[in-house]
């Protein structure tokens, strides 16, 4: 096929289950992630040749549970370099599902282009019966090549749905529809070459974001509140030089009294503390379950603890002023 008239899409592979391999096609667990290279991933989807002209790069070959801030920096900068080229109309990133939502949100706030960036993944390894990776990859390239995806920020194409990077989260350990956007719902869908957006992204992102990836990242950790919680972890993190702590609180970001006392001491020592919720959906109201004004803590709003960590890392790296403004905005 003559590809000279097809849109040119860069596919950046980082590993994950979509590149996983197992010895038994009937098994969807116990596989090795990140084994299959990007060329084999693309070869498994012949239909791509009718959708786009592909430029492929292997950025990493990891299980996404091992994602690092250093790799985030490498990935974001390479995406910006590619999108600055006139012939590249969009980028697709293949990724593991475990930390996909964190990488997607990081890119959503740091990529400096209106061109589409679409992440995709798989819940079943490439060797499994009914592997979901090939169709997810085809759909992701289809979305990245669509003019309607321009200006929507970083997207996640998974199981025929299109999600905003800010809203999407993994909700199942095994199901092929593992990714959902609990509070806002999907942005749209992609099926059989058709891309339809049913709403647009409202919060600032990409070129409208004040943030960029860093060469050195501040230490930010997540601590969970639960029955009989202690302040031991908070005290240890403060002693280790942590710059920020995100609390995965109960309910509306509430915290055990002992933990609250330790966090109050941490704030007095200059540590930024953000209250999120471990619940999985809903929002954390400022002063709703804790006296943020008195404690000096920050509400994460609708961000889950792991995305709140991403935003806090970016804000601290940029020496952003008024952290509550940052969380209210992004």
UniProtKB/TrEMBL annotation:
Pfam families: Asparaginase, Asparaginase_C. The keyword Hydrolase applies. GO terms for biological process: asparagine metabolic process. Substrate binds at residues 64, 97-98. PROSITE patterns: ASN_GLN_ASE_1, ASN_GLN_ASE_2, ASN_GLN_ASE_3. Residues 220-321 form the Asparaginase/glutaminase C-terminal domain. The keyword DNA repair does not apply. Belongs to the asparaginase 1 family. This is L-asparaginase II. It comes from Caballeronia catudaia.
């Amino acid at each position: 096929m003559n590809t000279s008239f097809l849109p040119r899409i860069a596919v950046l592979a980082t590993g994950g289950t979509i590149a996983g391999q197992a010895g038994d096609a009937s098994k969807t667990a116990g596989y090795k992630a990140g084994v299959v290279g990007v060329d084999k991933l693309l070869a498994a989807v012949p239909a791509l040749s009718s959708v786009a002209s592909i430029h492929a790069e292997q950025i990493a070959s990891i299980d996404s549970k091992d994602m690092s801030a250093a790799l985030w920096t490498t990935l974001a900068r390479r995406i910006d370099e590619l999108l600055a080229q006139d012939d590249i109309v969009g980028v697709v990133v293949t990724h593991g599902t475990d930390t996909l939502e964190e990488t997607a949100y990081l890119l959503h706030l740091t990529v400096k282009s209106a061109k589409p960036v679409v992440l995709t993944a798989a819940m079943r390894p490439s060797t499994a019966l009914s592997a979901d990776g090939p169709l997810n990859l085809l759909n992701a390239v289809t979305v990245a090549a669509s003019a309607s995806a321009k200006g929507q920020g970083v997207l996640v194409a998974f199981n025929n749905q299109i999600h905003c990077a800010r809203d999407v989260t993994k909700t199942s350990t095994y199901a092929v529809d593992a990714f959902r956007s609990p509070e806002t719902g999907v942005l749209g869908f992609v099926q059989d070459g058709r891309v339809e957006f049913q709403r647009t992204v409202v919060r600032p992102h990409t070129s409208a974001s004040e943030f960029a990836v860093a060469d050195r990242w501040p230490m930010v950790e997540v601590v969970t509140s639960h029955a009989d919680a202690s302040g031991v972890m908070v005290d240890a993190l403060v002693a280790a030089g942590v710059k920020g702590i995100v609390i995965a609180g109960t309910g509306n970001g509430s915290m055990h009294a002992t933990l609250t006392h330790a966090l109050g001491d941490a704030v007095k020592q200059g540590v930024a503390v953000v209250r999120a919720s471990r619940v999985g959906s809903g929002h954390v109201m400022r002063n709703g379950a804790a006296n943020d004004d008195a404690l000096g803590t920050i509400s994460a709003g609708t961000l889950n603890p792991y995305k709140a960590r991403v935003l806090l890392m970016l804000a601290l790296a940029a020496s952003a002023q008024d952290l509550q403004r940052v969380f209210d905005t992004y």
